[in-house]
Records
---
Amino acid sequence: MRLVDLSIAKKVVGSFAVLIIIALVSAVINHRKLSFIQSSIGWSEHTYDVLNVNASLITTMVDRETGLRGYLVTADPAFLAPYRSGTQAFDANLQRLRTLTSDNPAQQARIAEVETLAKRWQADIAEPEIALMGQPSTQAEARARVGGGAGRALMDAIRAKGGEIEATERTLLTARQADEADAFSTSYAATLLSLVALLATAIAGAFLLTKLIAIPTRTRTLVMGELARDNLDVTVPSSD
């Protein structure tokens, strides 16, 4: 069936139906993309949390090492305060990091390695040196252990593993940001195209209404006027 064969009512309804369909398609696309963006933003915030906690984890290890070194130099137990508080903070950050990355087995494995290295540092380096510093006769031995490099090697390994955790999270963050940008672009394009389509449909609808309703109505009005003046030579237009 051709467009011209449709009744005026169907033509009007069809024009509005096209407008509604375009609006609905645009709304569905935008809803999906905006939902994705909202979810992605949530995961990005989660990644920033992981990065912050991981940084705090490494910082607490540095605090522990700094406190230990201060004690080795001065033999003043007050310098062990950062070591003691750092130990508690390290455990809290470690648990928090485990919770945040519970959905990522690779990160969980790296965190476990950090914990193992930290325990080795505490058991093999820190606690023995603290014990040796507790006796004046063994303080020189405690200080001599620092030159062995074992403690530094463990700390370097902890920093390296923390760097791996950070690098992994930043890779995830970059990928999410790229996906967000793509979703924004798609949503923007869908909105722009729908506006163009709506405008084009509205113009086409106005043209059709003018051609199919306004002009025929005017023509019939003129014909009716001629008939009213007993002019029977006029042609009566079709009502289709």
---
Amino acid sequence: MLYQIHQNNETIGWQHCVLFFAILCTKLLQNTPIFSFPYPRPINAPGLVTPVGSVERMPITEKLTIPLNLFFGVAGVLPARNGKVHSLHPFDFGGNIDNKNFIKGTSMYYKVQVDGAGVYVGDSHFSQGDGELSGTAIEGSLNGRIQIILHKGKKLFKNPILDSGEHWETHGYGHTLDLANRQAALEAVDFLTHRFKISRELAYSTLSVKGDFHVTQVSNGILGVHCKMLKEAYKNLEVNKESI
């Protein structure tokens, strides 16, 4: 599928759901695109733009059943940096995290980096497995209702944290899965020691027996791992009021 995005009768972007993704950020409280590209244009990435209707549609003939699991692969806040930011990668401010557990009824916490936050969402998925192995999920268009809450005076470490209801989930990124797993683990240790005021040794030990590490995605250039911490395991501990 190839989408052309218009604003005030001007083409401001395209999205091909197989070859590349694009985040079109807008200036805070304005409708002017920060980055506006004419089309067609050279693409500084592997692959080609495939015009609609130029390729044969290949329906799946096997009787497969894929349960729907609707979520936004991209969400976050504007980064405290100048210039263009690669829309394919996950970052400390969010971006293309692609955590399939970020579904209806869950909450993702981001550290605000600029005045006004500049929240954005996109890259909607109908279903995706952990890893997003072939490069894409089932990509499609979704409308979502999102509640934004500003938590003042709360401690958040480097990367976004997901509250899925039964679990807390920290995220780690890296050029290898070892590095991504290490960062997710360190984020989890930091979170547990601050939220429950326990030692780093105890936090590390509990992650070994009740922390589940999942490959978030291997398709975004920077690999992702998320650590799921079961809330039930910590229900008898006192919660730090400064924690999220």
